[in-house]
Specification:
Blueprint lengths: L4 H12 L14 H30 L3 H23 L3 H10 L10 E5 L6 E3 L2 E3 L2 H7 L11 E7 L4 E7 L4 E6 L3 E6 L7 E6 L3 E7 L4 E6 L6 E7 L10 E3 L6
Length: 250
């Protein structure tokens, strides 16, 4: 006798269904990965907010000012150093091209001494000189015969001192420390003045007789020029015995 049709239908349906028995597998969810990523992002954002808040609190405190000032000064120094290397000072280059070390020391009434010169007393402590004796030993004419007035000064990079003429005293200079231009009025040369360059490793003595204009210009990019001036008469700079701003090109 034949089997009932209903039983065959049930068996066939059960074996062919994709969801039957142990062969059915549930899809894997990405919920855990998304949660981990969200938590990581939240933690990073929280840490950033805490850092920003800590910086704000620190900046409100009084001792934050020296710290900020130090950073500002450091950045300023770095910026100036970069500008110096990228754009050298044009005035130094102009002087170097203009002069070319063509001046004669005797025209500028100047004598230079290297560090081992016997005219300069030198030992492990350094050197020292007597400006009047140094000028006389060098045979320079028109210098101070005594030091009734003495002044010592610094000329920073690119600076100028002098550029004046005294009518009531002779003056002797000692110059050292940096590459320096010395100009002296001299009507026997074409321009009406002589100018020479004193090297940074040299010591020079120069004399400016009464009635002769003089000027010192620091040509060094970094170092300072130092000078000592010895006058054989006391000068009153408020009277009419001195002429100022003699040359307009320095």
């Amino acid at each position: 006798m034949a089997n009932p049709p209903s039983r065959r239908t049930s068996s066939s349906s059960s074996s062919s269904s994709p969801y039957s028995g142990s062969n059915y597998l549930l899809p894997i969810s990405d919920t855990n990965n998304n949660n981990n990523q969200f938590q990581s992002q939240t933690t990073a954002a929280t840490a950033t907010i805490r850092l920003v808040n800590s910086i704000k609190i620190f900046l409100r405190k009084p001792h934050a000012f020296p710290f900020l000032l130090s950073i500002f000064l450091f950045l300023t120094w770095v910026s100036l150093r970069i500008q110096h290397h990228q754009h050298p000072r044009s005035d130094f280059n102009t002087w170097a091209l203009k002069l070319g070390n063509k001046g004669k020391d005797e025209d500028a009434n100047l004598v230079r001494f290297h560090s081992m010169s016997s005219s300069i007393v030198k030992d492990k402590r350094g050197w020292f000189v007597d400006p009047v004796s140094l000028g006389l030993q060098a045979g320079i004419s028109g210098g101070a015969t005594n030091c009734a007035s003495v002044h010592i000064g610094e000329i920073r990079a690119g600076g100028v001192r002098g550029n004046h003429r005294h009518h009531s005293c002779n003056e002797t200079f000692v110059i050292w420390g940096a590459k320096t231009l010395f100009r002296l009025e001299n009507n026997l040369v074409d321009k009406g003045y002589a100018e020479v360059i004193v090297g940074a490793d040299e010591v020079a003595v120069a004399a400016s007789p009464s009635g002769k204009a003089h000027a010192l210009v620091n040509l060094d990019a970094l170092r300072s020029t130092f000078f000592l001036g010895c006058q054989d008469n006391i000068i009153n700079y408020n009277d009419s015995t001195s002429d100022f701003n003699v040359w307009k090109d320095i």
